[in-house]
Recover the amino acids of this structure.
């Protein structure tokens, strides 16, 4: 019997939604647009944070660099022997890398030691065609699939790159790779460390930075502190520090956009309040009829709350669907430029999107909440009206 009663309440709520079409359209549209913006930011932010964590995984345990006037400068290879004397060091590998501008986009040329540089399994690095770099290689490169597509490159093709002196260097593409981190890999050109030194004009006595790997991960902070003590003026970055910096950067950007969303949420509450109040005269007559049929004040409030929940679920579902379409198929214009920041000058790559259960639940929650807040007081005022007064329109 109780189930049938609640089903009747649900039927009355649905009927009321279709009866007051103007209110329904106004509330659904405004809330849907607010949820589309919030959902789009949440999904992009989630994707970028996920890739930031994977990017940090690609980094060494500790990165040692030198700064001068706030800018990174080459670090002497003599520091390698100093670092290797510290207890707990497994190995120290030099890395030579830098940026180049090509076709109004920024690309990264990274010189590595193919025999020594480890590649973590978490990033799912794989050679899709060709092969990986070898120690004896000279003037060869491997590139990511998005960069290969941008330059129309395939294995055995020649990639012509220009250094800061506008001098051309020819690299033979020997492999095309894929990995989970598109944000990191879209602009990446991997070459041997010797080729990278030639390209950037860095002698064998220097490197861009030193990649330090610890034999015990729990000792990373201690080792980092020892490096700071033994190499004055060095900048020492642990993998965790890099991860925190990346997460903080993307989190701050998503927070800024969320402020705009909070303003829109307040507007939705006002719209819900206004629309609920605008139909109060007709609603009071409806209340009078329902009360004359035996409905209590709590029954009527339940019907109104069911209306708010149905409208909230409908608006949130449409908003989430639009957010996914906006992010996944349209590339999240405007939002992506703001969220990516400097990465917006990278070559084109699929925007990382992560739709988590938590974010979806939160979106549904924040969709229903403003409607409950915006309709509660007007609903209560109409529900406590006496039946005869309500039916007379008083």
């Amino acid at each position: 019997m109780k189930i049938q009663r609640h089903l009747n309440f649900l039927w009355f709520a649905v009927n009321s939604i279709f009866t007051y079409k103007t209110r329904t359209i106004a509330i659904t549209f405004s809330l849907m647009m607010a949820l589309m913006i919030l959902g789009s930011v949440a999904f992009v932010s989630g994707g970028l944070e996920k890739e930031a964590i994977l990017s940090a995984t690609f980094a060494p345990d500790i990165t040692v660099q030198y700064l001068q006037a706030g800018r990174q400068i080459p670090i002497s290879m003599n520091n390698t022997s100093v670092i290797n004397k510290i207890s707990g060091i497994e190995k120290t590998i030099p890395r030579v890398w830098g940026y180049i501008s090509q076709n109004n986009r920024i690309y990264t040329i990274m010189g590595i030691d193919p025999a020594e540089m480890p590649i973590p399994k978490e990033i799912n690095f794989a050679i899709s065609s060709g092969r990986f770099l070898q120690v004896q290689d000279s003037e060869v490169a491997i590139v990511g699939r998005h960069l290969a597509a941008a330059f129309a490159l395939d294995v055995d093709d020649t990639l012509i790159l220009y250094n800061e002196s506008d001098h051309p260097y020819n690299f033979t593409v020997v492999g095309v790779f894929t990995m989970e981190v598109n944000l990191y890999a879209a602009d990446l050109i991997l070459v041997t460390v010797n080729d990278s030194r030639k390209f950037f004009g860095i002698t064998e006595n220097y490197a861009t930075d030193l990649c330090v790997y610890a034999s015990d991960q729990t000792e990373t902070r201690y080792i980092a502190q020892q490096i700071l003590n033994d190499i004055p003026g060095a900048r020492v970055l642990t993998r965790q520090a890099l991860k925190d910096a990346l997460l903080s950067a993307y989190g701050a950007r998503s927070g800024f956009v969320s402020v705009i969303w909070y303003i829109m949420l307040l507007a939705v509450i006002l719209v819900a309040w206004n629309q609920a109040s605008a139909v109060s005269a007709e609603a009071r007559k409806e209340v009078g009829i329902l009360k004359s049929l035996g409905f209590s004040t709590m029954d009527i409030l339940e019907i109104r709350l069911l209306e708010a929940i149905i409208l909230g679920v409908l608006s949130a579902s449409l908003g989430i669907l639009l957010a996914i379409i906006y992010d996944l198929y349209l590339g999240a214009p405007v939002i992506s430029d703001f969220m990516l920041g400097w990465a917006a000058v990278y070559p084109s790559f699929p925007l990382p999107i992560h739709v988590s259960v938590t974010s979806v639940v939160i979106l549904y929650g924040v969709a229903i909440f403003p409607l409950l807040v915006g309709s509660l007081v007007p609903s209560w005022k109409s529900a406590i009206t006496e039946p005869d007064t309500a039916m007379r329109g008083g």
Observations:
- The CA atoms of residues 160 and 283 lie 73 Å apart.
- The chain has two domains: 2-53+246-391, 75-207.
